Amino acid sequence: MKNSLKINCFTTISIILTLLFVSCKTNSQTSFKSLENKKNLLISDNLKWSERMALSIMKRHPESYMIDDRTVAKWDYVHAVVLNSIEELYKKTKDKKYYNYVKSYADILIDENGDISKTYTVETYNIDLITPGSILFDLYETTQDKRYLVAMQTLRKQIEEQPRTPSGGFWHKKIYPNQMWLDGLFMGEPFYAQYTATFENGKKLDDIAKQFELIQLHATDKKTGLLYHAWDESKQMPWANKQTGTSPNFWSRSIGWYAMALVDALDYFPKDHPKQKELVGYLNNVANALVKFQDKSGLWYQVTDKGGKAGNYLESSGSSMFTYALAKGANKGYLPKKFKTIAIKAFDGLTTQLIQVEPNGEINITQACAVAGLGGNPYRDGSYGYYINERKKDNDPKATGPFILAALELDR
Questions:
Q1: Which of 128, 138, 183, 396 is catalytic?
Q2: Per-residue pLDDT tens for 192-205?
Q3: Taking the mean position of all CA atoms in its chain, how far away is CA 196?
Q4: 45 annotated active-site
Q5: Name one GO biological process term (predicted).
Q6: DSSP 3-state of 357
């Protein structure tokens, strides 16, 4: 009996050690494969800018979860901003390495049952966390893997339960009650629009239009036509104007989020939908306002309307977003054709002023604001000084993703 027990124990230990060895070997091979793929990514200046940027990202971040210099996989909007653009690049090139790069992010964060809760918590009601769902529509259509559908359904449930302002606008996060930020329109509405168009026969399109209506009504400056970064319906936040509830300045990236949200959500509004023309009108309003503040370089400043003020700088993420939104808007017929020319000028400004080319062919996009927000701890007051003093970061995903999209729209 004792000998039998010893043999069983020995056998069990052997199996465990073997499994550990195989696991380590597999992980080692996966990492080695990633390194080899990285070495084999040749970036020629004969390629279009969209591929040059995508390949540069993939060389810097061999695994897609590493985007934004992450070491741990996380369900996050910054990855989605880049991966959405690479998904669009795949549609143009049919190059499988782009598809695989996008898919690998979904597969590492969604388990075999479609659960994303390892790094996603619905209770925070953070609208930023809706955005990664946008990469799942094509993956589900291509594979019919129900994991992707379950993950999308989880995000749709969050939208259904998202706290709202008294007027019906989505809170930006649970920790920011009664506040709508321009950022949030991009984070929530394109996914919401695509979901309701794909799975619900478009029954919630009016609710999506309502979000834009509230922002247009309450966050637009009548003098310039620009939109303030945020609106607090309660008017309780220290940064909020006590009469209007708006934050005090125009931040280019926030307006960029809004413009991109419009052109992307409009993809799912039929032309005969009662709200379609209204949204197209909002896009024209913001496009006409932006032209007034475009620098001679073709770019826009961090604080949109204060180009000549000390400390302000030409900022790459907002400029890339505007370029994409104007180009797509013109291509789709939402905007007059002149905006395509304006987008081309902006793209030329990006490539000549803010793109750096490395000896190995990698490209870097410079002068991106790393992050900006309102409230919180430490407190962010939305002042001019606050925006110009937030740190800058080269190759920030909020710049690289929109740059790829702009390059695709302009076929550059």
A1: 183
A2: 999 999 999 999 99
A3: 20
A4: no
A5: carbohydrate metabolic process
A6: strand
- The neighbour count for residue 345, using CB atoms within 10 Å, is 16
Query: Residue 89 has which token pair?
Result: 């690049």
Query: In 261-389, at which residue ranges do the beta strands (DSSP E only) sit?
Result: 355-357, 363-365, 368-369
Which domains, ranges and CATH numbers included, belong to the chain? Answer: 49-410 (1.50.10.10)
Residue with tokens 């009548």: 222
CB 387, CB 249: distance < 8 Å: yes
Pairwise CA distance, residues 137 & 359, whole Å? 37
Backbone angles phi, psi at 253, to 5 degrees: -65, -35
Q: Decide: 403 and 351 in contact? Cβ < 8 Å.
A: no
By C-alpha distance, which of 192, 241, 197 is closest to 212? Answer: 192
If one counts every other C-beta atom within 10 angstroms of the C-beta of residue 339, the result is: 23
pTM of the model: 0.91
Mean of all residue pLDDT scores within the chain: 93
CA distances in angstroms from 77 to 43, 120, 128, 188, listed in the order given: 27, 11, 6, 10
Residue type, 182: L
Q: Name residues whose C-beta falls within 8 Å of residue 49's C-beta, 6 or more positions apart in sequence.
A: 351, 363, 403, 404, 407, 412
